[in-house]
């Protein structure tokens, strides 16, 4: 497995599930990370090739294409996980457009007419699809889409604080596009003395501590165990010699209704 990092609940649960499935099938797992760095990803893929692994589950770094991967791995079976490598490679992905669109529509349903989306600076297909879902939901409602790209903490504090505290057309809700962005937003709100209870908030990617924040965070969770089992099963078929056309699985997220969106907390539901 080659993942960007292991420090969020989605990747952590996926890794644990893949390790379990692999052990049951008699495989040993190598876990490497590329930290969203293309050069490090190249080095790690080359290392996997030298180790003569049977197959790779890959979360590709930004702007990775299948030709780059094949140049390093040759014919080693690859399943793209969370991020696509194109139509020629098996993949298991979240329906990112739908996730962001439905999260946005949920906030609009709570009468938040001005929702600011906060995104990460990486040129990743999931983030781009999430932004598209948010933007089109806002346009369909006749609302203005406003996006802040988080680069560093002071810049985010300045821009998000301005959006939430300006006198005219003040943003009343936030849609966070990823786990790391949500962490940055929570830190910014704390440092800016802005109470989460005073705004609406939904984050894409669940968090292990979401229930312990006040108010508890509403999130769009990716079903990590389902992702992982499907990815491993597809890789297992490829390592067994399957020559079927590439399989592309797109999975809906689970809306974890808590309180930060404006709802009373209920059990999770599928959007």
Give an overview in words.
The chain is α/β, with parallel strands linked by helices. The protein has 2 domains: 2-94 and 222-252, Response regulator (Rossmann fold, 3-Layer(aba) Sandwich), CATH 3.40.50; 96-221, 3-Layer(aba) Sandwich (Rossmann fold), CATH 3.40.50.2300. It is built from 8 helices and 12 strands. It has helices spanning 9-24, 38-50, 66-73, 96-109, 125-140, 153-165, 179-191, 224-239; strands spanning 2-3, 32-33, 56-58, 78-81, 90-94, 115-119, 146-149, 173-176, 200-204, 218-221, 248-251, 254-256. The strands form 3 sheets. A 6-stranded mixed beta sheet has the order 7-6-8-9-10-12, with helices on both faces. A 4-stranded parallel beta sheet has the order 3-4-5-11, with helices on one face. A two-stranded parallel ribbon has the order 1-2. Strand 6, helix 5 (125-140) and strand 7 form a beta-alpha-beta unit. The longest helix has 16 residues, at 9-24. The two termini are 30 Å apart.
Walk me through the topology.
Layout lengths: L1 E2 L5 H16 L7 E2 L4 H13 L5 E3 L7 H8 L4 E4 L8 E5 L1 H14 L5 E5 L5 H16 L5 E4 L3 H13 L7 E4 L2 H13 L8 E5 L13 E4 L2 H16 L8 E4 L2 E3 L15
Parallel strand pairs: 1-2, 3-4, 4-5, 5-11, 6-7, 6-8, 8-9, 9-10
Antiparallel strand pairs: 10-12
Brief sketch in words of this structure:
With 271 residues, this protein is of the alpha/beta class.
Keywords:
271 residues, alpha/beta, Rossmann fold, 2 domains, six-stranded mixed β-sheet, four-stranded parallel β-sheet, 8 helices, 12 strands, elongated
Fourth-level CATH superfamily of the largest domain: Response regulator
Q: Rg from C-alpha positions?
A: 20 Å
Strand content: 15-25%
Residue stretches low in confidence (pLDDT < 50, at least 5 long) are none
Q: What is the CATH fold-level name of the largest domain?
A: Rossmann fold
